[in-house]
Amino acid sequence: MNSPPAHLGVLAELLAAAMDPSAAGGDHAAIYVERVAVRWLMGLVGYPTDGSMGILVSGGSMASLTCLAAARHRLALRHGWNDRQDGMTGDRPSLVVYLSSEAHTTLHKAVELLGLGTRCLRVIPVDADFRIDIDALRTAITVDRAAGLLPFCVAASAGTVATGAIDRFDLLADLCVAEDLWLHVDGAYGAVGILDPDRSDRYAGMDRADSLAIDPHKWLSVPVECGCAIVRDGALLRDTFSLVPSYVRTEEGRGIGGLPWYSEYGFQQSRGFRALKLWMALQHAGRDGYARIVSRHNAQARTLAGLIDAAPDLERLAPVELSIVCFRYRPAGMPMDDERLDGLNKAIMEEIQSSGDAFVTQASIGGRFSLRANIIHYGTTDDDLQVLIDAVRAVGGRLATASKGER
């Protein structure tokens, strides 16, 4: 998901480098700008700001790691120990994290880095629309509790990286409340899809999540790096990370203590001025501007899906929820098993990537190799969609014919 940088974001990077402030904290412009920009971002996706806290980080990987650290800290305190003092040692039940088979691998990394180990991961199957299966999730929680384990977090997706699937947040939130679990939403790519009126109903309940990860450097076209970790309980987030030297310790409301010291809300002490490019991009485009971009990209994805469905030699492999379309070339009148189709489509992808005419990546859909088109460039036109279709069909036809001749 390599989006083009917003022009004002590029300028903001230059200005931020010239000012070169330390964004650890203090009473200066960089801190005011980050506080405002993050709250604007919360408002953009409908996340409650009262009591919540957000911090800009490098991207979705660090955002989810930050949020899950807060989840672990809450769990430990509720069960009578302090993970910051005691770690994960001692005679305690293993903690369990639940995510779908479509979840991003950054969540696996976060579980490893938090010392939980991947054996504490439960990968839950998905339904026909690639959303986490709620009944299977409920069963897994019941089984783990009966085995003496300690379920503590469900990681949902607001737009999976493979297909753009959006989990059913209201149902997940109800389940997490009933089971006393933390609900984290990975919205690195797709959380801003809520701005599309034709898709906003899919996000019902996202505002009930305990934490949310967003990458403005994806669909909002803020230059890399710019991710955001948002936690509903801001005091908990501070309690999870705060360990500051005496020479920068502040008392709230006094001196330079009127604004948050971001070094107390995440792992970093030295922090770059990421907020300026986000603030300028949001200021320039506004909610309405981003809503138009997101809505247009989603509509273009549906247009692309229509072109695929109409072509006799193309096959769509997943529903189109946001701006991602997964499909493959399947030569008409030339029977091929899935293994040969996988090899053919991999070769198509590699040749198209090398040609420079268009660009597709890949995804594994039900074990099948899929060509994956992700529309997040603000300059993409409907003509570009036809260029992609023509390129895939031309390269696919030539490679399939050559393959048939070799046999």
TrEMBL record:
GO terms for molecular function: aromatic-L-amino-acid decarboxylase activity; pyridoxal phosphate binding. Keywords: Decarboxylase, Lyase, Pyridoxal phosphate. Its EC number is 4.1.1.28. The modification N6-(pyridoxal phosphate)lysine is found at residue 218. Coiled coil: none annotated. Its cofactor is pyridoxal 5'-phosphate. One of its GO terms (biological process) is carboxylic acid metabolic process. Gene3D superfamilies: 3.90.1150.170, Type I PLP-dependent aspartate aminotransferase-like (Major domain). Belongs to the group II decarboxylase family. PANTHER family: GROUP II PYRIDOXAL-5-PHOSPHATE DECARBOXYLASE, MIP05841P. This is Aromatic-L-amino-acid decarboxylase.
